[in-house]
Amino acid sequence: MNRPSIRAIALLAVALAATAAFAQDAADPSVDSGEFPTNPYESGDALLSFRLGAGFGLLNLDLSDGSFDPLNLGPGAAFSLSYMHFVARGFAIGGELGGLVAGSVAGRTFFAAPLAFRASWHFVLSPFEIAPTVAAGAVLQRLGELSHVDPVVRFGADWLWRQSADWGLGLRTEFWLIPQMYLDYPDSNRLGGFLETTLTATYHL
Amino acid sequence: MKHLARATLALALLSAVILGACSEGPVGIFESLSLETPIDNGTEAFASQTPNFVVRFGSDYYAGVGALWRRSVTGETWSKVAGTPTGLYAVSAASDGTSSLWVLFTDGDTSMVKLWDGSIWSDVVTDGISTMAPDSLFFLNSTVFLSAGATDTAADPDVTSANIHSGANFATAAFGLAPSGGRVKALVHDGATFYAAHADDVHTGDATTGGGLAASVTPGVGTVTGLLARGAADVVATGSSGSVAVWNGSAWTAHVIDSTAYLSDLVEVPADGGGTVVLVATRSFGAKGAKGYFEVDPSTWTVVDDRGLVSTLTNFQTTLEETSITKLYYDSVGTRLFALTGGDGLWSNAWKGTAWSGWNRE
User: What pTM was estimated for this model as a whole?
Assistant: First the structure.
């Protein structure tokens, strides 16, 4: 794997570790300690979020021999629309439809459209929020004449500033893992990884 | 929870639509990406252009892409050649390889042939075709030829005759008849006999003698678009029907390459792994779409499936797969293969002695 990929994964790991540590401190988001106001998200609430930003191809692991290959994608654009419904205080589940578009070194366009079910935990340090999140679903991918649907797992966090009672603005950093499996062509099986960094606008329904 | 149930249902329906709309490719997407090689942007002036010719003269390649361009065989940068006629396009060229480069310039109304010796341009007298519309130059068997057609009127410029001209002032016309159906598309020499492609026929004989190409045979490939002389009495023709035909000295034998393709040209080059391969170019024409080129085994005249003989499959897919190719040119001295496309510029691929470099933009 090339050095930029390793660095990016390391940065992501640090970010996730920080998120987890913060989450541990705010283990009970409903506690009103003065420092951590009562979590405003109650069961029945919902969030509609729009995201737009950049996507980076980082990982291309050959599952047939364990070697790392270049993914040969340049920086691309990522976007998504999600709907999250709170089923408990500070905990929401929902779905998300997104997209990632990136150009390859040979001039082709790679497009991925993940459709995923998502869970997120919302921790509030007013006016800021951190929401670790995981998602699982399917991703339609297209490259030139090639197309394929594979499972996708995504994990990361939303970092939000609560601008008003209705709106939150911030940043998402999330890593996608796509095991690309070809039953008829096992030598083509790969594990792909992408980093999404998007600006987020969240509306509290 | 009612909202969540609705959202879940909507997502499930959307998922079903997306999943049902896909098809699996021949290799993996991430695998295909890993096999990519960077494609240069190439010469800006060549982008989206239809090159007319490439020919090597001395240690330089010359290309007609609107104007006349030149680059060193070992270089990468193309530059315009100075001293060419103003306002005229370079449409055809022929070279003896060492001392003479003939270039045909035209704007549709005015045409002239110029001779370049490497340092000075001189005019070539073309009195012999003063009433003709010149079309293409060829250099074969130590002789330069000019194909030309006569048109009836400027307002109705249908070609009414086609000829191969040679000799002083291009006065010698080798066709013994005045066939209709367009101009001469190819001229080759097998060491003893000339072969000229015209309409659905291949004319044979001596192109340096008046009327010397009177004999003709129909290869049965539709309009004959390209010729390849592989050796004495071993000539191959491409045609609009999607077939090639092989001449063995007495008869043509047709082989279907792809009946949905319009074959436009062919060339024989070294193959990765040894031996040779014949590349058969395709172009878009009418309802027929372009398919780049086919790799054809010259021992069986069947298509090789994996496209791995002059590039990798991924390199082919990212460069010429659906591209309309009008001509192929292989320079055995510089060991470089050129693909002249219809509207997608000029591409080349270098033979490194044991393997090809892969296609890239010029």
Answer: 0.79
